[in-house]
Amino acid sequence: MEIIILPTPEDVGRVAADLISSVVKAKPTAVLGLATGSSPLDIYHSLATRVAAGELDVSQASGFALDEYVGIPLEHPESYAAVIARDVVGPLGMDPAKVRVPDGRALDIEAATAEYDAAIAAAGGVDIQILGIGANGHIGFNEPTSSFASRTRIKTLAPETRAANARFFDDPADVPTHCLTQGLGTILDAHRVVLVAQGAGKAAAIAAAVEGPLSAMCPGSALQLHQHATIVIDEAAAAELTLSEYYKYTYANKPAFQRFE
């Protein structure tokens, strides 16, 4: 893992966007792994600004969303299909036909999830996977006790996850109880991963994922097994890291040839 600690949430979005931009510029047809939620919004805003300024072209890239609620209507504003279209595809000028979201309305969930993993593999794998992390350590919707070998599948959302997502719905009772999510094994297959986190509410989860033991109780710790994972966080999210000063020193003294243009 490379740990990058920055002063503000805006800095987190900018630096993560730098990394994603470098991947797309090197490979215009890159496959992007797209996360939803509040954590990656600054990334998408920063990328959209670059697209609008003519500094970045994402029109040839394709994308696979991390997850989707089960049973939610496609047209619902909080379906992840709608969120991805609104926050990512439109602002970045991506081709909607090249961006897929798990089918939470499928009659045969097992077939739909197996086909989703097969589609990712057929695309050559995800070039860079964007991730956030939940306060309980989940990535995607891989809740605690998820297998590190898991593939895209249906999961029951933890009560704390439903409570955290209730702010997006008119009534907390409207938050779906189940989702489809890329599994930890699917996520670990990505060629590169960038995880972002902001705020003190994520500090314990970041400490467990980065410095804690490998544990199914903190699904984010699976990223310790990835050969190319970058964790970009603000000072508040870094508050419980034991080696925060070392991470800052390491990033500040990173060799020039390893920095992204």
From TrEMBL:
It holds the Pfam family Glucosamine_iso. The active site is at residues 67, 136, 138, 143. Its EC number is 3.5.99.6. The keyword Hydrolase applies. Keywords: Allosteric enzyme, Carbohydrate metabolism, Hydrolase. The record marks 146, 153, 155-156 as: Part of the allosteric site. PROSITE patterns: GLC_GALNAC_ISOMERASE. It comes from the Bacteria. Residues 14-229 form the Glucosamine/galactosamine-6-phosphate isomerase domain. Allosterically activated by N-acetylglucosamine 6-phosphate (GlcNAc6P). Gene3D superfamilies: 3.40.50.1360. Pathway: Amino-sugar metabolism; N-acetylneuraminate degradation; D-fructose 6-phosphate from N-acetylneuraminate: step 5/5. The keyword Ribosomal protein does not apply. It catalyses: alpha-D-glucosamine 6-phosphate + H2O = beta-D-fructose 6-phosphate + NH4(+). Belongs to the glucosamine/galactosamine-6-phosphate isomerase family. NagB subfamily. Catalyzes the reversible isomerization-deamination of glucosamine 6-phosphate (GlcN6P) to form fructose 6-phosphate (Fru6P) and ammonium ion. This is Glucosamine-6-phosphate deaminase.
